[in-house]
Amino acid sequence: MYITVTVDMKRYSGKRFDLRLSDQYTAKKVVDLIWSIEELEVPQRDGSWIRVQNKETHVYGSQVLAERGVTNGDRIEIL
């Protein structure tokens, strides 16, 4: 299923934007996708950690978004 999440890049570019993606993506896939969209020069950190701000949970590396409870309307922060 496709979900729309708000991506918070305050640790990198300071931008915040909405992104529609599959809830079957892994955290690594999401981080890679965001890096290519934003064309960031800063290297990615190891582990591909994502914080779900409105649920106080984390998703990392090979974990699938849906399995960690990430749903439509969530706000995620790339760590």
The main pleated sheet reads as:
5 strands, mixed
Any idea how many domains?
1
CATH architecture: Roll
Q: Round the mean pLDDT to the nearest integer and report it.
A: 93
Radius of gyration equals 11 Å
Oligomer status: single chain
Helix share bin: 10-25%
User: What coarse outline follows from CA principal-axis ratios?
Assistant: globular
What is the fold-level CATH name, i.e. the topology?
Ubiquitin-like (UB roll)
User: From N to C, what is the helix and strand string?
Assistant: EEHEEE
Number of strands: 5
Which spans have pLDDT < 50 for at least 5 consecutive residues?
A: none
Protein name: Ubiquitin
Pfam family, one: YukD
InterPro entries: EsaB (IPR014921), YukD-like (IPR024962)
Family: Belongs to the EsaB family.
Question: Can you characterise this structure?
Answer:
By secondary structure, the protein is an alpha+beta fold. The chain has a single domain, classed as Ubiquitin-like (UB roll) (Roll). The protein is 15% helix and 30% strand. The protein is built from one helix and five strands, in the order ββαβββ. A five-stranded mixed sheet has the order 2-1-5-3-4, with helices on one face. Strand 1 and strand 2 form a beta hairpin. The model has no long low-confidence stretch (mean pLDDT 93). Pfam families: YukD. This is Ubiquitin. It comes from Alkalicoccobacillus plakortidis. Belongs to the EsaB family. InterPro entries: EsaB (IPR014921), YukD-like (IPR024962).
In short, what is this structure?
With 79 residues, this protein is an alpha+beta fold.
